[in-house]
Design brief:
By secondary structure, this protein is mainly alpha-helical. It starts with a helix and ends in a 9-residue tail after the last helix.
Length: 72
């Protein structure tokens, strides 16, 4: 292969690598966004659970019963 052919081949490889790196960067950004959304969802669920626990504590206090939620 000529020197010119080697240069073109090298340029093509660099361009392909750049495209792959760009694609990986987009994938990582999308994954990071998914993680943020999952964390936000988990925080909302945690808030709901805390409100339910508070409600049950109020019911228990009002009825004089001791309600116990199962442990993990």
């Amino acid at each position: 292969m000529s020197a010119f052919g080697d240069v073109l081949s090298g340029i093509r490889k660099v361009l392909l690598i750049e495209e792959q790196v760009s694609r990986l960067d987009r994938d990582v950004q999308n994954l990071a966004q998914d993680v943020r959304r999952t964390r936000e969802y988990a925080e909302r669920i945690d808030g709901h659970v805390k409100r339910i626990e508070g409600f049950l504590d109020g019911v228990a206090a009002a009825t004089g019963q001791k309600l116990r939620l199962p442990k993990d």
